[in-house]
Write a structure and sequence with these properties.
Layout (H helix, E strand, L loop, with lengths): L1 H7 L23 E6 L7 H10 L10 E3 L14 E3 L17 E6 L13 H17 L2 E4 L23 H11 L4 H16 L7
Parallel strand pairs: 1-4, 1-5, 2-4
Antiparallel strand pairs: 2-3
Helix pairs in contact: 3-4, 3-5
The structure holds zinc ion (ZN).
Zinc ion binds next to loops.
Length: 204
């Protein structure tokens, strides 16, 4: 089961040196990246895929990426591991009224209850991933709760990714790290420990 899940939702290769990886979505215009939380204590791409199919009747997970929190999920991914969800070439289902030109990143957890820490492995992985997406698509980056700032998009009426999620600190860290890639170093550490634990995983 473990291998099947990993193959269905591959783990993001940690060091795309030329960002070719992201160009698969080029035929869909990407204008914005949205940061979400799962509002759950645990979960992974496989679990959200199941939930979105069964509960929402969708044909696939709504998010394009899932960043694991390492807490008690059945696959046991450590915090910060990024899984691919719906292919970026396909429109996602994560922001009402703004899915056509956007990418959805879901961090497992709930910052309505958790305290925000910029050094949290999930936050650092989100910065790393967002940075790569900026290099590939030059999108605007928004928290889900701020979707109403986009002309024509309704206010979602949500705190997602949680009231304690510090959008200003996130943005500042993203700006500081753009072009310097320290987030990638942290991701390498996480990734290496993961590979040591799960040697034999198929990793794209
Ligand atoms: Zn959300």
């Amino acid at each position: 089961m473990r291998t099947q899940a990993a193959q269905r939702f591959p783990i993001l290769k940690p060091f795309p040196t030329d960002y070719d990886f992201f160009r698969g979505g080029r035929h869909r215009e990407i204008r914005r990246v949205y940061i979400h939380c799962s509002a759950t204590g645990q979960g992974d791409a496989e679990a959200f895929d199941y939930y979105h199919r069964v509960q929402n009747g969708w044909n696939q997970i709504g998010y394009h990426f899932v960043i694991n929190n390492g807490a008690g999920d059945k696959i046991g991914f450590p915090a910060g591991i990024i899984q691919m969800g719906r292919p970026m070439s396909k429109q996602g289902a994560h922001v009402k009224g703004d899915n056509a030109y956007t990418i959805g990143i879901c961090l497992v957890g709930n910052w309505d209850f958790e305290l925000f820490d910029i050094l949290d492995a999930r936050v650092q992985s989100a910065i790393y991933l967002t940075e790569a997406l900026i290099e590939a698509f030059s999108p605007e980056v928004l928290l889900h709760r701020d979707a109403g700032k986009v002309p024509g998009v309704p206010n979602p009426g949500k705190t997602c990714p949680g009231k304690n999620f510090d959008g200003g600190a996130f943005e500042q860290c993203l700006l500081d790290q753009l072009g310097r890639h320290p987030a990638r170093l942290l991701y390498e550490q996480i990734y290496k420990s993961f590979i040591q634990r799960y040697r034999g995983y198929k990793v794209i």
